[in-house]
Amino acid sequence: DAKTTQPPSMDCAEGRAANLPCNHSTISGNEYVYWYRQIHPQGPQYIIHGLKNNETNEMASLIITEDRKSSTLILPHATLRDTAVYYCIVRVEVGDMRFGAGTRLTVKP
Amino acid sequence: NAGVTQTPKFQVLKTGQSMTLQCAQDMNHEYMSWYRQDPGMGLRLIHYSVGAGITDQGEVPNGYNVSRSTTEDFPLRLLSAAPSQTSVYFCASSFSTAGNTIYFGEGSWLTVV
């Protein structure tokens, strides 16, 4: 599996866009970029995933660089409820997914 | 549609006791897996299964047994509980094809005293 690197923590003002970076320079051609988040004490929640193209859904946007070595998760209008740990994972299949430390995002009023 | 169901939600065990955490899914997923999460830490994969009759070890398998006799169920057994196994346990399931999402249960809080 490709290794990912995320900042350990980030802050964002409520109502502003939260941009969470992820580096995955060893990604293989068939590996997807997945983003999950965990709001204590719940289990991880799926946000979005992509292979090559940028993706958008009702929760977030995923921007993948052309060389696929990095990506950015964008929460367009962060709210206090978006405070969570965000995980960037690069995998083909997800069944035995490994979670790293992630980025702890704190949305401040 | 129940999704991924874990039981029990809370359990207190004495050191040396055995117990089974139950996990069931109704989505016909091939993959099922168990994770543990210690306070302030990330999730670590214990065991996983790619289908009925097939299991494999994850990152932290010691002290745990699993079996997969049906597609729907994937129980996690603690044969002789230790205080180091105090944790929150999450069961998850997904389809095996690439690009699918993984679904998590609500967690089981286990305390070993």
Task: Provide a quick synopsis of the model.
Chain A is an all-beta fold and 109 residues long.
| Oligomer class | heterodimer
Mean pLDDT, all residues of chain B: 94
| Fraction in beta strands of chain B | over 45%
- Largest beta sheet of chain A, briefly? 5 strands, mixed
In DSSP terms (H or I, runs of 4 or more residues), the helix count of chain A works out at 0
Largest sheet of chain B: 7 strands, mixed
Can you count the beta strands of chain B? Answer: 11
Element-by-element helix/strand order of chain A? EEEEEEEEE
Q: What is the typical, i.e. mean, pLDDT of chain A? A: 93
Q: How far apart, in Å, are the first and last alpha carbons of chain A?
A: 38 Å
Principal-axes geometry of chain B comes out as globular
Q: Show unreliable segments of chain B.
A: none
Query: Residue share in helices of chain B?
Result: under 10%
Instruction: Catalogue the unreliable spans of chain A.
Output: none
- How many beta-strand segments of chain A? 9
Gross morphology of chain A is globular
Radius of gyration of chain A: 13 Å
Total of DSSP H or I helical runs spanning 4+ residues of chain B: 0
Overview of this structure, please?
The complex is a heterodimer of chains A (109) and B (113). The termini of chain A are far apart. Chain A contains no helices and 9 strands. With 109 residues, chain A is mainly beta. In chain A, a hairpin with a 6-residue loop joins strand 3 and strand 4 (45-50). The model of chain A has no long low-confidence stretch (mean pLDDT 93). Chain A is globular. Chain B is mostly beta strands. Helices cover 0% and strands 50% of the residues of chain B. Chain B has strands at residues 4-7, 10-13, 19-25, 31-37, 43-51, 54-57, 64-66, 76-78, 87-94, 103-104, 108-112. In chain B, strands 2, 4, 5, 6, 9, 10 and 11 form a 7-stranded mixed sheet that branches. The N and C termini of chain B lie far apart (36 Å). The model of chain B has no long low-confidence stretch (mean pLDDT 94). The chains are: A mainly beta (109), B mainly beta (113). Chains A and B meet through strand 3 and strand 4 of A and strand 4, strand 5, strand 9 and strand 10 of B.
